[in-house]
Amino acid sequence: MIDLTSAKVNKRIPKNRFKTELSDIDTVTWLYKISPDTAGFRHGDEITEIQIFAAVFKSGAANKCELSAIQKAIPYPILFTAHGKSYFTLEGELFESEKEFLRSDTLNIERRSAKLTELYEDIAEAFIPIQRRTAENIADYVVRYKRLSAIERNIARLQSKVDNEKQPNKRIELNEELKQLKAEREELS
User: Fold this and answer.
1) What does pTM read for this prediction?
2) Does residue 24 lie within any of the structural domains?
3) Going edge to edge, which strands form the sheet with 25-34?
């Protein structure tokens, strides 16, 4: 667990600061700035600070497009909390988690290092439900997860086709394709 007491900002940010139309957002609050001068972390290789924002939406549910627009306007990684969920952008895609990362000035991530880059990686791992491989960088990890998700969708679609197919020859073809996809899924897991 990481104590964020010294990193607390707690400032409301006007919507017009993001230079984009945010029609569904009611308020954005900058909660914490995790950086070498606030939370006792050293600069990482690429990450110099991580922000934590809270967003409240008029509709009562998070609008991922508007969270992505905010992320594009800020040059640092942002961990968003909105309506009981957490959001984090990895490799240009916004990931969602039911996990509660913040609890009274504490970030619920195990601190394994004093580098911000490693904290970023730890947050990323909390958002991706597959195990990260040894020496796998974050970009490859995200690409592998996206590929695995696409394969899972294809397997489900193909299994449905197999179940509904009446012609034995066509069914054999589909089963072969299904077997290949399952092998690829196993390789990526």
Assistant:
1) 0.81
2) yes
3) 8-13, 25-34, 50-57, 78-82, 85-90, 93-97
